[in-house]
What does this fold into?
Amino acid sequence: MAHPTSVEERYDLITRSLQEVLGGDSIKAILTEGRTPKCYWGTAPTGRPHIGYFVPLTKIADFLRADVEVTILLADVHAFLDNLKAPLELVEHRTKYYEFVLRAVFESLSIPVDKLRFVQGSSYQLTREYNMDNYRLCATVTEHDAKKAGAEVVKQVESPLLSGLLYPGLQALDEQYLDCDFQFGGVDQRKIFTFAELYLPRLGYRKRAHLMNSMVPGLQGTKMSSSDPNSKIDFLDPPNVVRQKIKKAFCEPGNIAENGVLAFIKTVLIPISKVRLERLQAEKEGGAQSDGKKSFTLEGAPEGTVFSVPRGEQYGGPTHYQNYEDLEAAFAKEEIHPGDLKQAVTNAIVELLDPIQKAFQENEEWKKITDLAYPPEVKEVKKKKEKVYHPPPPGKGKNATAAPSTEGNGTAAQPKAAPAANTEMSAPPS
It folds into this structure.
């Protein structure tokens, strides 16, 4: 696919592979007017980012190819407000860590970072104007609406803090203060997006469009979470750890409904593979030079292949697929063994992470920030309660001696007389 120029081509590139688009007509109108659309994507620097981030970052590559101006919000204030997931003293370090990771990922995907704008939330969220708008919003929004908006994003606890109710309103205001035309995020953000569409106009601000991608299941088939190390792969996990985690991943033969391995192929590997093929095609047509990286295929794969699965010759040799649908259908029919699929995914992930990990090893500042942002947990060792010896009072205790005699002072107690022996039997009761 050559660099898009028409309105339809650019719009298709902006919206392809998304789960849902709200307000797409406003984006089309901007493109028709000849203006450059502006987008913002935000991430709260809490837990360590994982390879699920490839999903939004690959989509951001589409935005940039469609000449969209992209702002990446490093939402440090949001990170603190979200039920105190990130202690305040760590937020600043984690914000820097996230920027290091995101820049390295963009560079590994050959996305020019000079077209991106990184903004730290606290740089404008602590201003007088922003806080006055926040107060105006608080005077308009009901507790019910604020709680409902954050239900899928803000951590739900038995006794929620007020900070969780502020979270959706701040994210809505970010659209105005970052001057965007549309906000991009996961489908789990939908309630916050519709909240923003409802309340921003009530403050006199325009309604923005919202683009949502699908969520990536974790390796066990459930949600991928930064707080669950077994559900995700960290960007800095070495190859042996990647292999161990993929080996343990849930991948039942024929099961396509709850399969984190298949989901990762669909949402990350094949989209990246398509982008690489498009770059190679553009290079052949005299367009921009590609990075020379092939899609996730094996030698001898037919032209147009986006994913290959290795397989021993005794089992028919490797298989090649030009789209995800064919791959999924083959797995459902059990034509692909889970072990072969896991090997293909492991090889692809190791290849994706290699340039990121090399960048980490070559950057001493990044290493220092990592230690500051995510210090090792210190487990509190419970000390055994020390027994303190308290001597018994005089005359007490198992080793106590008999009390000394006080005879001669006129006050000694006289010993009790022993009872006389009864030589007669008691008369029987009458």
Q: What stands out?
A: The chain has two domains: 7-215, 217-375.
